[in-house]
Amino acid sequence: MSVLQRDPQDQVRVLDEDGTVVGEVPDVDDETLVDMYRYMRLARHFDTRAVSLQRQGRMGTYPPLSGQEGAQIGSALALDEQDWMVPSYREHGASLLRGLPLKQTLLYWMGHEKGNEMPEGVNLFPPAVPIASQIPHATGAAWAKKLRGEDDTAVICYFGDGATSEGDFHEGLNFAGVFDTPNVFFCNNNQWAISVPRERQTAAETLAQKATAYGIDGVQVDGMDPLAVYSVTKAALDKAKNPGEGEGRPTLIEAVQYRFGAHTTADDPTVYRDDDEVEKWKAKDPIPRLEAFLRETGRIDDEAVEAIEEDVKQRVADAIEAAESDPRPDPSDMFDYAYAERTPEIQAQYEEFEALREKFGDEGFLRE
Amino acid sequence: MSSQNLTIVQAVRDGLYTEMNLDDEVLVMGEDVGKNGGVFRATEGLWDEFGDDRVIDTPLAESGIVGTAVGMAAMGLKPVPEIQFSGFMYPGFDQIVSHMSRFRNRTRGRYTLPMVLRAPYGGGIRAPESHSESKEMFYAHEAGLKVVIPSTPYDTKGLLISAIRDPDPVIFMEPKLIYRAFRGEVPEEDYTVPIGEAAVRREGTDVSVFTFGAMTRPTLEAVENLEDEGIDAEVVDIRTISPLDRETIVESFKKTGRAVVVHEAPKNGGLGAEITATIQEEALLYQEAPVKRVAGYDVPYPLYALEDYYLPSVARVEEGIREAVNF
Prior knowledge:
Number of domains of chain A: 2
Mean pLDDT of chain B: 98
Distance between the termini of chain B: 48 Å
Number of strands of chain B: 14
Oligomer: heterodimer
Strand order of the largest sheet of chain B: 9-11-10-13-14
Number of strands of chain A: 7
Radius of gyration of chain A: 22 Å
Helix content of chain B: 25-40%
Strand content of chain B: 15-25%
Number of helices of chain B: 12
Largest sheet of chain A: 5 strands, parallel
Helix content of chain A: 40-55%
CATH architecture of the largest domain in chain B: 3-Layer(aba) Sandwich
CATH class of the largest domain in chain B: Alpha Beta
Structural class of chain B: alpha/beta
Largest sheet of chain B: 5 strands, mixed
Order of helices and strands of chain A: HHEHHHEHEEEHEHEHHHH
Shape of chain A: globular
CATH superfamily of the largest domain in chain B: Thiamin diphosphate (ThDP)-binding fold, Pyr/PP domains
Mean pLDDT of chain A: 97
């Protein structure tokens, strides 16, 4: 029986909180399992450094992901090369795995549009800031693949628990159900939409059960168990591309997890939630869980963990160095991308702007 | 009257607090307005004071927030919903333009909506994408709505109380760049500042500079700098975008014969266009120079690395005034 054929209340798990196997370990090679761990460590370290860059004034407001690595890496690792990813704004880890260099994620949060210039072959949409607004895009992208007969391609879309309250969630999933599009709707239920708890978003017992109303499959998974996340996502992607007799393509996955830190660096979670609650969830931290499993099964040892730590630090340091030494965007750049060609109005404004810059220099514009 | 020294965001909070104490029908709703006290602290302490039925954390759904507020207001409550950033109004836009603006008209006055939709707006705080736009003209273009943008703590409280007491729906846009930039005297008691009246912030004879919201500060600074060049400028703070105080605009212009409009919203279709047309319609024969618009450019608001180049700066305002004066 497919892992998707479960009651939406029945949470899929593979590892318990100590990393002991309690479910079916997905059939993947050792290298992939170690990579899963490496990328989770990388995402965590990146996150820690990004928060500190913001604190030091080297970066603007940033949304941290710590606690959510299992969901991001476990799911993104299940994608095939040709699949597409449509993220919200917190998927720095998943986007990295899809091929977006960390340098670009940093540039985006440092206020450069260039961060969204996807390298060729990276099947990734830019982050969507307005909540849930990306969900219909994911449905449309998957629909396009279906209409063009590209049956080997699915589209995964990430969003949070708060997003399930928005109209766009309803419309995106409803279209997916009606047009049977190859979608995986991956809800990172981290319990808090800024200060508003999951219970205030819906009176439904689970978010996964919302799938039922759209006529699609819904499954709940322990989002801090990367192996369970991988299994569920892989099954959903396979079904999206190659549904069995009587099966629909789209799936809603509710990955139950927790945001350890603030909503963004502009948020102070101590105002609205207790330390006890945070500690309770920290016991489910996906990284030590996977590490314990990998050690226990002889896939990694102290030496390997140390090497991964070094590698992760180096990669993040290199990315920060690359982002900070990237040339500042040219101010005239803002006139170049509104349309394929500057309209006469924009051209006139550009010329006025350049004349002012000539006259006053950058000091004529920059505020303290 | 006793007074307090408050910032603009504190004046918002104080206005809500004052009016909620006076009128049990007033309630606050939105995302994170309750226990968290609002992401800018505009509703801080109100949840403790008035409880869960009058300071309501809603699901994350702007159409739901605006739409349910419409229903509440139709039943006689006075909801003051908050949209966390004006950039997130758009899921609620249908409710705003299809219903909030026209319930009175559609029912020939049988149902009215005494509600105020608050949202911080504008750029300059190094915020993420979609957090910095100035789209007041979307709402000014919609008949049936009043659109208010304060620029001082005193006006903030007085205009907010006027908005809550107004029988018609008001869009109350708060300039977040200056939420905490300075303090001003604000009476502890309730008082009103009338909607629909501009304020002359500085009198002058050479040129009229019309502005509002966060742009009043760079405008006043520019005008002060230009004193050294012998330019005596008048500064008019528009305060209410709709209905526009055309009388004050025309009166000022007739005195100076020259005008500059400063706003951070895009130039195309911005308030500058409406002010220019008003001058052309009502004071053509007084006109000594083309009206100069110093505005945001007609491109998407850039991510923050370039936002200073987008927003009207003191130097840009000065240059615009020189252009109008030296024509």
